[in-house]
Amino acid sequence: MRDSRDASCRLLAVALSGLVAAAPLLAQQTDSSAARKQRTDSAASTTLRAVQVRGRADNLIGIASSASQGRIGRADLRLRPLQREGEILEAVPGMILTQHSGDGKANQMVVRGFNLDHGTDFQTRLESMPLNLPTHGHGHGYTYLNPLIPEFVDHLEYKLGPMYAELGDFGSAGGATLHLTRSLLKPVALLESGAFGFRRAVLGAGASTRRNQFIVGGEAKQYDGPWEQPQRLGKFSGLARWTYTGQRDEISVLALGYANKWNATDQIPARAFASGAIGRFGQVDPTLGGDASRNSLSLSWTRTQRRGKLAIDAFVVRHDLNLFSNFTYFLDNAGRGDQINQTDRRTIGGVNLELTRVGIVSGVAHALRTGVQLRGDDIAVGLYRSDRRVRGDTVRRDNIRQGSAGAYASLESHWSPRVRTVLGVRQDWYDFHVQSNDSRNSGTRLATIGSPKASLVFSPVSGTELYLGGGLGFHSNDARGTTIRFDPVSGDPATPVNPLVRSRAAELGLRTSRGEWLRTTASLWALNLDSELLFVGDAGTTEALGGTHRVGVTMANFVKPVSTLSLDTDVSFTRARFADVGRDADRIPGALERVITAGATWEPRRGVHAVARVRHFGSSALTEDNRVRGTPTTLLNLSVGGTIRGTRLTASMLNASNARSSDVQYFYASRLAGESGAGVADVHFHPVEPRMLRVGLSRGF
Fold first, then answer.
1. Is 56:72 a contact under the CB 8 Å cutoff?
2. According to the model, what pLDDT value does residue 538 have?
3. Which cell locations does it reside in (predicted)?
4. Interior/surface letters 418-430, b for 16+ CB within 10 angstroms, e for the rest
5. How far apart are CA 38 and CA 302, in angstroms?
6. Which residues of 20-51 are buried (b: 16+ CB within 10 A; e: fewer)?
């Protein structure tokens, strides 16, 4: 064990020394001509300036390295009617977030033909802090968005695909970073009420001096939902932030807190609903639920110089989850039932460093970014059998120390006013140490992987760019899967999974911007994943899935025909298949083939608005042979609002057409009381919630 740690330290030392050595490389500058100086200043301005993110109206020509990256600002986010906090990520083109259980649990996520479960293969960050939780008690990559207070989100940045050097683990399908506000000019307050016991209050206040900004805020939320077993969700979130802005330095300290309890509303078998045994909003097991908490403290420091910028982020996070689920009802135990209890308690610590330098080399303007990302998780996870939330036998219990180090470099070169390139490389190191209650499944694994990236950008005419890019990415696997030797239930031999799994991607893209009124992107992309073999937290063992390949087209459009009206439409079509299997069994269950989102926002004057948004995802295969397919879902959300004497009144109608669709659909075997011991293979679905009205009063937002 000591040798493996020494090896990790040596590898990390090499990465750090490489970063230090490479950083000054482009600090040199020769002002031999005005043209060279102009290109240098242009590169510096593009790379180093503090950009005020307004929203989709932002012009990313000359900034973006692909057609699949963008920014969504507060102006676009603040009027979106949301049912759940996580739906804020649906601003990312082609992305859908749903729920198959109580609103305290992480969302189901789908993008680019990936059924991400709760987040695997899509890297999500809140400021500098990673939200994906590796080796999680419920599912690897578990991404918890429920602590968010949407009103305090300033903007989000997204990058689809693995072509970006700063994206490491979980980034094969891309990533997004959520940024919170750093100042409040005046106190803010929001009170909301709606159908099915919905109550919500948000408060915030700020103070400022010449160089300091202070904000505090909080949210309390209750919700029963339409379920026969009331959800009784009780959420509390809070934040406090101090930001110092100097001539060259900006320092920010952010503290976040969150706690939640709920009754779960898991998916139900279609046969039980069809027979009338349970209602559409009923439950087979009404004793499910959970509680969760997340507390964090982060520090960010940025120093800007004329030809460079240094950013350092440090964070510590405490996450706790206690979850009770039952997906197969009485399949494994006809008497007590199949309820399970999953627990995850961890402390996360990490540091991110990034240094940017710009300059002239041989008459060409370059910008070099080098970075190091360090993370360590101290994890205690457990899987237990339970009955009516009373814990029983232990299936598996583990203490895990998981560390990672990633070093990257990205070189952007402006060869001419029409041509630039971005070359990147990344190296990652992992150390998994597992102590299991069954010593045969304990062990240590070390792994490393390198990931080159490249993009060519060509501007044929002003306001238009063409992109050709590609790169290698990866995702890690659950640490327990890397050391497993025996199935904890059957005792049969089990095969360990590869610690790191390679992905490969290529993309051809187009971006067009016209004045302030048009932003359009289109991308044709392909992505291969070597293996989707994974560790299943619900069973405590591995599930064999082969390699996959995905191809697709994604288009994102923003139009502002007049100053008071903005329109947006995002369309994504995907073909996802298992590799090296027959065409009669190559479908990837749950991989959405079509996602369309569209919206219209009308603001005739300040304080008055009307919004309509449509969210659609099409039919998809639920089985590998495509014989069972899910049904499509289309939802319409509406919102109107106006301001009188500083108080805004908003009314939102969610699922305005009262569609009887499904949030998620699965096909697997389960057993209801009285059915045969082998169970019944059936569609299991979680219904979308019915039409509901929510009304809010706010000041300051």
1. yes
2. 55
3. Cell outer membrane
4. eebbbbbbbbbbb
5. 25
6. eebbeebeebeeeeeebeebbeebbebbbeee
* Separation between Cα atoms, residue 634 and residue 632, nearest integer Å: 7
pLDDT score at 16:
34
Q: Which amino acid makes up residue 443? A: G
Checking if the pLDDT of 476 tops 90, the result is yes
Q: For the sheet containing 69-73, what is the strand order?
A: 69-73, 153-160, 174-180, 123-126, 129-130
The reported pTM is 0.90
Q: What's the CA gap between 548 and 113, in Å, rounded? A: 10
Q: Could you say which architecture CATH assigns to the domain 2-699?
A: Beta Barrel (2.40)
User: How far, in Å, CA of 44 to CA of 60, rounded?
Assistant: 15
Is the pLDDT at 21 greater than 70, yes or no?
A: no
As given in the structure block, the two tokens for residue 5 are 């740690």
3-state secondary structure of 85: helix
Checking DSSP bridges between strand 123-126 and strand 174-180, what pairing results, if any? parallel
Give the domain ranges of the chain.
Answer: 2-699
DSSP string, 405-472: EEEEEEEEEE-SSSEEEEEEEEEEEEEEEEEESSGGG-EEEEEEEEEEEEEEEE-SSTTEEEEEEEEE
pLDDT single digits (tens) 256-301: 999 999 999 899 999 999 999 999 999 999 999 999 999 999 999 9
One-letter-per-residue 3-state SS of 217-273: EEEEEEECCCCCCCCCEEEEEEEEEEEEECCCEEEEEEEEEEEEEEECCCCEEHHHH
- Give the tens place of pLDDT for each residue, 581-604: 888 999 998 899 999 999 999 999
Token code pair at residue 223: 């919700």
Backbone φ and ψ for 585, nearest 5 degrees, come out as -150, 35
**Given this model, what pLDDT does residue 5 score?**
40
- Residue written as token pair 């298949």: 577
Dihedral of the CA atoms 490, 494, 498, 501 (nearest 10)? -50
pLDDT score of 489: 86
Backbone angles phi, psi at 39, to 5 degrees: -65, -40
> pLDDT digits over 630-685, tens only?
999 999 999 999 998 889 999 999 999 999 999 999 999 999 998 988 899 999 99
Give the pLDDT band of residue 23 (cuts 50, 70, 90): very low
Of the candidates 157, 57, 53, the one whose C-alpha atom is nearest the C-alpha of residue 515 is: 57
Neighbours of 75 (CB within 10 A): 17
